Amino acid sequence: MAIRWNRLDSPVGTLLLTADETGALTSLSVPEQKKGRTVQEGWVHDPTPFRDAEEQLAAYFAGELKEFQLELRPDGTEFRTRVWDALDDVPYGATTTYGEIAARVGAARVAVRAVGGAIGANPLLILRPCHRVIGANGLLTGYAGGLERKTALLTLEGAL
């Protein structure tokens, strides 16, 4: 069960994608990402499972695609998975807050920090749009890929 990987150039830097043995995407990392993945010994460089992702990401960055249709299989706890699934419901060009995501997953208001931690641990940047989550005060806050990338993605989507 070797992890497959490939790199893709993009307007926000070189993307590192990983997939499991079935071809489902398990991560998308950007350079200098907090807790981002790096190629490990034993991983297999194989661009084949990433063809659809490459095409869809190119269309997204060209402003032609608003919703990804890819098989995603991130590894996370049940709580994190619920939070990551809730990110998929934030439409292209829109933003939401950490508190709104907490409410969507049925977490108590005091759990906003845990929701923020789950969002920060999202292993599928861009594909799972954690960049669309902003602070309750409307300010851009934390993004594992860096606020410059968050700004670029939200600008591309017309949210800024």
Structure notes:
The protein is α/β, with parallel strands linked by helices and 160 residues long. It is built from 5 helices and 6 strands; from the N terminus they run E-E-E-E-H-H-E-H-H-E-H. Its main location: cytoplasm.
What's the short story on this structure?
By secondary structure, the chain is an alpha/beta fold. The protein is 29% helix and 13% strand.
Weakly predicted, low-confidence segments: none
Distance between the termini: 42 Å
Sheet with the most strands? 4 strands, mixed
* Residue fraction in strands: 5-15%
Domain Methylated-DNA-[protein]-cysteine S-methyltransferase DNA binding: 78-159
Domain Methylguanine DNA methyltransferase ribonuclease-like: 3-73
GO biological process, one term: methylation
Subcellular location: Cytoplasm
